[in-house]
Specification:
heterodimer, A: alpha/beta, Aminopeptidase, Alpha-Beta Plaits, 3 domains, 10-stranded mixed sheet, 4-stranded antiparallel sheet, B: Aminopeptidase, 4-stranded mixed sheet
C-alpha cells in the first residue's frame, strides 16, 4: 500500500449520517475472517484467505463457475481469487475491483497485541492488515456478496481480483501473474484499487475530528533498484594506494547526491498542484500553483517557486524522478584495501521514462566509466499514467461531495507504487479510489499496531458500494 | 603479513643472485609440507588453524619430536583458532632460547573473485599461486621444515629453539594466538628474541627466473601500530520514495572523501632515518637523492618538503613517512526501499610510533569536520609498537648471510608499516625481528588481495637462508 496523499488545508465538514444496515454484521464477520487469516510471506497463506473469501461468496449465491481460485504451482500459498458477477450490457466493458490480501510481516513480540487477532478498541480496529489492504478487500468481497444476495442485474459485469504479493518485492505477484497469464479473465474498462483515500485533521471522527481531504490516485511512479559497483585490485591496508574502491564509490554517490532530475508534470500532478496549491494558500501553495501554471518559466526565471516546493519532501519527489542511495557494502577485511564496493540506489521513476533511460542518466551523472551501474531484478513495467477520465472521476467527485460536503476530490500521483503498475501496463487503467480515511500519522501501516477507525471502515464500505453502483449500474 | 618496504629501481650489476644452493634431498618433503599448509583453509570464516596446526605437528612428530615437545593450544571459545608450540632443547643452560614465530591464518579469499581456487596450490610461470603462498605460510612451513630437519638430523644446538604457530594475525578483534600465548603462556614462549615475518627482499619487478634482480633485503626493526576506527553516521531514515536532504550514506561518503584528500604530516624516527639513508644510497637518481634528503634535512625545510612530495608517489614510502588511514569496509542501510538509518565504515589506520590511538581518533574527527560523524576505536586495543634495539648479535648474522646468499644486495633496517604479532611479544619483553630471506615483487604479490603468489625460487632459497640463520643463532 502507498500512503494516502496528504492535503493540508483543514475544512469544516460533518460526516453523512449512516443509515441502519442489516448486512453490516455479516460484513464485520467477513472482515474479521480475512484479517485473522495470516497472509504474510514468511508464515501466512493467501490461498487459504482466498478460499475463505470464496466461501463467503458461495454462501451469498455465487455459482461455482463464477469463482476462480488460482495459484501458481511453485507458489502454492500465494494464491488468490477471481470472482465474476455478470452484467447485462453486451457493449460496456467490465469493472474490475482489485485488492491485495497479503500483508507486511508483523512480529508478535514487537506488537502490543497479537497482530493476527482483530481487536476493537477506542473506536479503532487494530491488527496487521486492518487497513492495508484487507479493509478494501473485505469491502469488495462484501459488495460482490451483496450483488449475489440481491440478484443484482448491473449493466457492467463486475469482477473481483484478490491478489497476493503486493507487499513483497521479487516474490510472486498475483496481479502481475494475472495480467500475464489470465488477461481475458480480468479484462475490464478500468480497475478500482487502493492508493487513494481520505485524511483526517489528526483526530478520530468519533472524537470530533474531520476528514479534510479525499484523493483519487491516477498514476504512480515506478521504481527500480540500481547497483553501483567499483572494483579495485586491493592489497594491504598498511600501504594505501591512490585508487580505492570505496573512495571511487563515495565519489559516485557524491555526484548522485548533488544531482536533481528535471521537474515534470503529468495531467494528474498538474491538477493536484493547482488544487492543493490553491487550497493551501501558503507560500508553498502559491509556489505549487506557479509551478503548475508555467513550469518552464517558473523553473528558469523564478527559481524560488521550485525551491519552495522542494522544501516539502513529498512534493519534491512528486515532480521528478528521484534516486537515493539506500544500502552500502564494501570490503572483505578491515586490514585489506577494498577489492569491491557496492551501493544500492533506489530510484522512483516519473511516468514516461524507462528503467534503461534512468540507468544511463545515472551513468552520465556519475561520469566515471569504471563505476558499474546495473538495474537489479525484479524489473517493473513503466506504463504511462491512466487518463483523467471523466467517466471515472465524475461519479467519484459527486459521491465525495455527498459523503463529505465541502471536501474536494483531488487527483494525485503516488510516489510509491501498487499493483496498479502491472494492470495499467496490461491496458487496464487503474485508479486508487477515495473513501477509506486514515490519520496523518499513517495508522501504523507497514509498521507497528496497524489500525483503522471503525467509522472509516463502515463509512468507506457504504461509499465504495455506492461508487461501484455508480459505475456498474 | 606486513608489506615489504623497499622500492623498485633496478640496481645495476647485481651478480649471481639466482645461483641456487645444491640440490637438497629434503626439498621434496618441504614442498609437500608447504602444499599441505597452503591447502588447509585457515580463514576465520570457513577455515581451521587448529587443523593446520595438527597437520604441522604431525610432521614434527614424524621427524622425532616427543609428544611432550609439541604443545597444542586452543581456547574452548575458539576451537578452530588454535596453534602449536614446539620445543627443541639446546645444550646450554645459560643461553636463552630463540623463538621462531609464524602465523597460520590467512586473509579471506572468495573463490568468485579469484582466477583460481585460492586454496589449491598451483605452480605456474615460476610462481606458486594460492592464498597464503607468501603471507605467512611460506615462513610458517620453512620454520616447521627447519625444526624437523634439525631434529631428524640430530643437530646439536646450544640454544633451545622454540616454534610458535599462531592464529589470528590477520583478523582484528578475533582471537589472536600470539597475544594469548604472551598473556597466558609467557614461560612457554620465553626467548631472548624472536624471528618473525616483516623483513624480506624486494625485486626490481621481475621474477629472478626472468632475469630480475633483488634490489634490497630488509630486516624489520619496529613497526607501526594498527587500529580500526569505526566511523558512523545516523539518520531518522524513512521511505525511499520520498528522499530527504540528510542521508546517512551521503554524509558518510562526504566524510570519506575528505579523508581521501588528507595526508598526515611526514615524520621520521631512528629506524626510518637509517632506512632512507641506506636505501637512498642504493637507489641513486632523483629518488635516491630524495631519500637521502629526508634522512638528513630539517623536517620543515623546503628541501625536505620537496623530497617528501616526490617520495609520496611510492605508496610504501608514503606509508613509511607518516600515519596513514584508509577506508577498508562499508556497510549501510537495512532495506533497498528505505532511507538508510545508519551507515558505517571501517577506517584502518597505521600509526607512526609515538602517537596514541586517541590522538589519531581526534585527528580523524577533525578531518571529517562533521559532528554527525562519530569515530570510535574498536576492540581489542593492541599495544602501541615500541621499536626493539638494533642488537648486533641479531643483525650481524643476518648481514653475513645476506652477503653470502645475495652478494651485492644491501641490507636495510626498516620499520614495518603494518602491524605484526611482534607487537604482543615486544610488549612482554621479547624483542622481535622481521628476518629477510624470502623476496617479493614491488607490487607485493597480491598479499591480502587477489591471486596471491610467490616466486618458487624465493621460497626455496629463502628456506635455505632461514635454516642457516637459525643455525647461526643457535649453534
Amino acid at each position: 500500500m502507498i500512503s494516502p496523499l496528504l492535503l493540508a488545508a483543514a475544512l469544516t465538514v460533518a460526516p453523512a449520517q449512516p443509515a441502519p444496515d442489516p448486512d453490516e454484521a455479516a460484513f464485520r464477520e467477513t472482515y474479521r475472517t480475512l484479517v485473522e487469516t495470516d497472509t504474510t510471506l514468511a508464515h501466512g497463506d493467501c490461498t487459504l484467505a482466498a478460499a475463505r473469501m470464496a466461501d463467503v461468496l458461495r454462501a451469498a449465491g455465487f455459482a461455482e463457475d463464477r469463482l476462480i481460485p488460482y495459484a501458481a504451482p511453485d507458489h502454492p500459498r500465494e494464491g488468490g481469487l477471481v470472482a465474476i458477477w455478470p452484467g447485462r450490457s453486451g457493449k460496456l466493458k467490465p469493472l474490475l475491483l482489485v485488492a491485495h490480501i497479503d500483508v507486511v510481516e508483523a512480529k508478535r513480540e514487537d506488537w502490543p497485541r497479537d497482530p493476527f487477532a482483530l481487536s476493537e478498541q477506542g473506536g479503532y480496529f487494530h491488527a496487521r492488515g486492518a487497513f492495508d489492504d484487507k479493509a478494501q478487500a473485505a469491502i469488495y468481497v462484501d459488495a460482490m456478496a451483496h450483488l449475489a444476495r440481491s440478484h443484482a442485474r448491473p449493466k457492467r459485469t463486475v469482477k473481483l481480483a484478490l491478489t497476493c504479493g503486493e507487499e513483497t518485492n521479487g516474490a510472486f505477484n498475483g496481479a502481475q501473474w494475472l495480467a500475464a497469464n489470465k488477461r481475458e479473465l480480468i479484462d475490464a474498462a478500468f480497475a478500482l484499487n487502493e492508493g487513494g483515500g481520505g485524511r483526517t485533521d489528526g483526530k478520530p471522527l468519533m472524537a470530533g475530528g474531520k476528514v479534510i481531504a479525499q484523493t483519487i490516485q491516477v498514476g504512480e511512479k515506478t521504481f527500480a533498484n540500481f547497483r553501483l559497483e567499483t572494483r579495485n585490485r586491493g592489497g594491504h591496508s598498511s600501504a594505501p594506494r591512490p585508487d580505492n574502491a570505496i573512495y571511487q564509490l563515495a565519489h559516485a554517490l557524491d555526484r548522485i547526491e548533488g544531482y536533481s532530475f528535471p521537474i515534470e508534470f503529468t495531467p494528474t500532478t498538474h491538477a493536484y498542484f493547482q488544487a492543493v496549491g490553491t487550497a493551501r494558500g501558503d507560500g508553498v501553495g502559491k509556489a505549487m500553483v506557479a509551478l503548475a501554471a508555467d513550469p518552464p518559466n517558473a523553473v528558469q526565471t523564478d527559481k524560488t517557486a521550485l525551491w519552495q516546493v522542494d522544501t516539502d519532501a513529498f512534493l519534491h519527489s512528486n515532480i521528478r524522478t528521484t534516486c537515493v542511495a539506500t544500502m552500502l557494502d564494501a570490503g572483505h577485511a578491515p586490514n585489506a584495501l577494498p577489492q569491491r564496493a557496492r551501493a544500492t540506489v533506489n530510484c522512483r521513476i516519473f511516468p514516461g521514462h524507462s528503467v534503461d533511460a534512468i540507468g544511463h542518466e545515472l551513468e552520465r551523472v556519475i561520469g566515471d566509466p569504471e563505476v558499474g551501474v546495473t538495474a537489479l531484478p525484479p524489473l517493473r513495467p513503466t506504463p504511462p499514467p491512466p487518463p483523467l477520465d471523466p467517466a471515472v472521476l465524475d461519479p467519484a467527485r459527486r459521491l465525495v461531495a455527498k459523503y463529505w460536503p465541502g471536501v474536494a476530490l483531488v487527483p494525485a500521483m503516488a510516489n510509491g507504487y501498487t499493483d496498479a503498475t502491472f494492470l495499467t501496463a496490461a491496458g487496464i487503467p487503474t485508479y486508487g479510489v477515495p473513501g477509506l480515511w486514515g490519520d496523518p500519522d499513517g495508522n501504523g501501516v507497514h509498521g507497528l499496531d496497524e489500525r483503522i477507525e471503525v467509522r472509516s471502515l463502515l463509512t468507506g464500505r457504504r461509499f465504495l458500494n455506492d461508487l461501484i453502483r455508480a459505475y456498474a449500474f | 603479513m606486513i608489506a615489504r618496504i623497499l622500492a623498485g629501481t633496478a640496481l645495476a650489476a647485481v651478480a649471481s643472485q639466482t645461483a641456487l644452493a645444491a640440490e637438497d634431498p629434503g626439498e621434496a618433503a618441504f614442498r609437500a609440507t608447504y602444499k599441505e599448509l597452503v591447502e588447509t583453509n585457515t580463514t576465520l570464516s570457513s577455515g581451521s588453524c587448529t587443523l593446520a596446526a595438527q597437520r604441522m605437528g604431525a610432521h614434527l612428530k614424524a621427524a622425532g619430536f616427543a609428544d611432550d615437545q609439541i604443545v597444542y593450544y586452543a581456547t574452548p571459545e575458539h576451537p578452530k583458532e588454535g596453534g602449536l608450540v614446539a620445543i627443541l632443547p639446546g645444550t646450554s643452560p645459560k643461553e636463552k632460547p630463540i623463538l621462531l614465530l609464524a602465523h597460520l591464518d590467512v586473509v579471506e579469499a572468495k573463490r568468485a573473485d579469484w582466477t583460481r581456487d585460492p586454496f589449491t596450490l598451483i605452480e605456474e610461470g615460476g610462481y606458486f599461486w594460492a592464498r597464503g603462498t607468501l603471507d605467512d605460510k611460506a615462513m610458517a612451513s620453512v620454520w616447521v621444515d627447519t625444526m624437523a630437519r634439525l631434529k631428524a638430523g640430530k643437530v646439536k644446538l646450544k640454544r633451545t629453539l622454540k616454534l610458535a604457530l599462531t592464529c589470528g594475525e590477520e583478523t582484528s578483534g578475533a582471537f589472536n594466538g600470539a597475544q594469548w600465548l604472551a598473556a597466558n603462556k609467557r614461560d612457554l614462549i620465553d626467548a631472548e628474541f624472536a624471528l618473525n615475518e616483516g623483513g624480506g627482499g624486494r625485486t626490481d619487478g621481475k621474477a629472478l627466473a626472468e632475469g630480475g634482480h633483488i634490489v634490497a633485503m630488509s630486516v624489520q626493526v619496529g613497526e607501526k601500530a594498527a587500529m580500526d576506527y569505526r566511523v558512523e553516521t545516523r539518520n531518522p531514515g524513512g521511505h525511499s520514495s520520498i528522499p530527504v536532504k540528510d542521508n546517512a550514506i551521503y554524509e558518510l561518503s562526504d566524510a570519506l572523501l575528505r579523508l581521501r584528500d588528507y595526508d598526515f604530516p611526514a615524520e621520521l624516527n631512528d629506524t626510518t632515518r637509517a632506512f632512507f639513508g641506506k636505501a637512498g644510497a642504493v637507489y641513486g637518481g632523483t629518488v635516491g637523492q630524495a631519500m637521502q634528503t629526508v634522512a638528513s634535512a630539517k623536517p620543515d625545510s623546503d628541501g625536505f618538503k620537496q623530497a617528501v612530495a616526490l617520495l609520496d608517489h611510492d605508496r610504501s614510502f608514503h606509508s613509511t613517512l607518516r600515519t596513514t588511514c584508509v577506508a577498508t569496509m562499508l556497510s549501510g542501510g537495512h532495506a533497498t526501499n528505505a532511507l538508510p538509518q545508519r551507515a558505517g565504515a571501517i577506517v584502518n589506520c597505521r600509526i607512526f610510533p609515538g602517537h596514541s590511538f586517541e590522538e589519531v581518533r581526534a585527528d580523524l574527527s577533525k578531518i571529517f569536520a562533521d559532528p554527525g560523524v562519530t569515530v570510535t576505536t574498536t576492540e581489542p586495543d593492541h599495544p602501541i609498537a615500541k621499536a626493539p634495539p638494533m642488537d648486533p648479535q641479531v643483525i650481524r648474522p643476518i648481514e653475513a648471510l645476506t652477503a653470502k646468499y645475495f652478494p651485492g644486495v644491501p641490507l636495510v633496517p626498516t620499520m614495518s608499516t603494518g602491524a605484526t604479532d611482534g607487537i604482543y611479544l615486544e610488549a612482554k619483553g621479547i624483542p622481535t625481528y622481521g628476518v629477510p630471506g624470502i623476496w617479493a615483487n614491488p607490487d607485493l604479490n597480491g598479499i591480502h588481495g587477489l591471486n596471491e603468489h610467490l616466486e618458487v625460487a624465493s621460497l626455496i632459497k629463502g628456506r635455505a637462508f632461514l635454516y642457516d640463520l637459525v643455525l647461526a643463532y643457535a649453534k
